[in-house]
Amino acid sequence: MPAISRMIGVGTATTGTVVSQPELLDLFAIDDPKVRSVYLNSAIDQRSLTLPVPDAAGRRLPEPQGDLLAKHKRLAVEMGGRALLACLKNAGAALADLRHLCCVTSTGFLTPGLSALIIKELGVDPYCSRSDIVGMGCNAGLNALNVVAGWSAAHPGELAVVLCTEACSAAYALDGTMRTAVVNSLFGDGAAALALVSDGAGETRPGPRILKFASFLITEAIDAMRYDWDSSLDRFSFFLDPQIPYVVGANAETVVDRLLAGTGLRRSDIAHWLVHSGGKKVIDAVVVNLGLSRHDVRHTVRVLREHGNVSSGSFLFSYERLLDEGVTDPGDYGILMTMGPGSTIETALIQW
Question: How does 23-57 read in b/e, with b if 16+ C-beta sit within 10 Å?
Fold first, then answer.
């Protein structure tokens, strides 16, 4: 029987200042009623952000792209290191046990990648193998999990970690457009790490097994979520089509049915749903189209409320909360779901 990877530990971290939505409106001196309504009707209470320092007049001015890239490097390494250490502690492991590190980010670009920088920063064994997944967006945590679960299965007993570290403050634009308002009202800084190991001969470890993955690329909506160069701002900026929540919701059923195909399971057999905290409308659309209850997405909603959308690591913030609840039982099935640019829906089936 082939080795199957298990999720044996999780850890999260945030950085910067915790700011409420009304406080942000004041900090940015936003008085447009339409823009204010986007912030105040987002189902987000607060987020962690590292905002530009006020100038002598108290204004927070846009940061040049070079400064934003430097901010990404600083925040992603610092946050990511703390999330990795928290994850290892939760797994009962040490840095010396780490054999593969996969780092995920979409809020900046670095060469060498975050994996190399974090290995150096934390003093990880330089023989540790590594990989970086860059630019895939909010869905990328599950893309990384798919890849690293394969590495783990091929190396029984060896510890691997998926580390998502997103400095969304380094992707902020400051202007008065509705495009910017939609993005700035949503994202927060956060990092999350997940430890994986597959059982060696005669071993059975605690933690859910990763059974299967399913992906779906909605090609007709490939430009509906994107992070690309904005020549008018002379920097990168993020774009979200207002229709994307409904596009994601309409296709959620298709990919979940594909995930469950051949397993003998129905959606009603799934005890735990860990959905990306993409935004209020996204969550609502997924709930309606999959026939979920508000209880099913309680952790997704709570993460959105307390942290905003922390991009690729959001589903791991929810997973950490599920474990803290202590409500999982042996044999329970769970579905992990992320969505992001492409437009893409990623899913995974796990069992305790």
Answer: ebbebbebeeeebbebbeebebebbbbbbbeeeee
Summarised one tens digit per residue, pLDDT across range 43-71 is: 999 999 999 888 888 888 888 889 999 99
**Active-site residue set:** 138
Work out the average pLDDT over 171-199.
Answer: 88
Q: Is 121's pLDDT higher than 70?
A: yes
